[in-house]
């Protein structure tokens, strides 16, 4: 090869390398920083039962029979986060089955679509609170256990504890269904507040108890349900709002209770469901959870 040919080949190689280095930002790497993932929250969907819908905790919203409050924690949290794309399909008395199947809230109203239908592929945030209405657990825990003994070892106690486990499993499946539908969404699971005061409180918001009944059993069963709800969050990599811890000291007969008493009051209250103060506290905690994700 002549000197002239070698010189031309060397020049060509230099030009090729220079072009390649320029394309890579010099030094073989791009000078532009990688594009960060888009973590902005724009769309929010709230799913759940009456502890999310919060019947009569402020002005009502909607005519579907769900007794959903316009000032429940999803509405308050959305306002704090400046969100305008919000779908709240929570419904009083909804079970975990209502998350994935049609649900009829009250007689005379049409059946509601599965709550999961409100979740879209591009949904950014989903909150979910469900389980206590499964197998009529709320009734069993806070009424039956207070008027007949259901201490550990009894058939009824074992049955309720098994139903608590089933509710937790159903919630886990529902969360995975949400993840399959909206894989980029941040999901926050919301637990249940403390409702029952300590036995020594002398609270009169409960029926008289027969010999052998133990009000601590009710607390224990609620704690077990919250543990299953927490476990569902952990298993699915979701956030969790510990409402039991948040509401400690605000049970019935406390100086500032966060829930209604044991009696339904048509047009005014649903037994044991949350008051405005509880919803404000949960909203604050939900926002903090989203900001810390």
Automatic annotation (TrEMBL):
This is SGNH/GDSL hydrolase family protein. InterPro entries: SEST-like, SGNH_hydro, SGNH_hydro_sf. It holds the Pfam family Lipase_GDSL_2. The keyword Disulfide bond applies. Residues 46-276 form the SGNH hydrolase-type esterase domain. The lineage of its organism: Bacteria, Bacillati, Actinomycetota, Actinomycetes, Propionibacteriales. Keywords: Disulfide bond, Hydrolase, Signal. GO terms for biological process: triglyceride catabolic process. Disulfide bonds join 66-91, 203-253. CDD domains: SEST_like. Residues 1-22 form the signal peptide. GO terms for molecular function: triacylglycerol lipase activity.
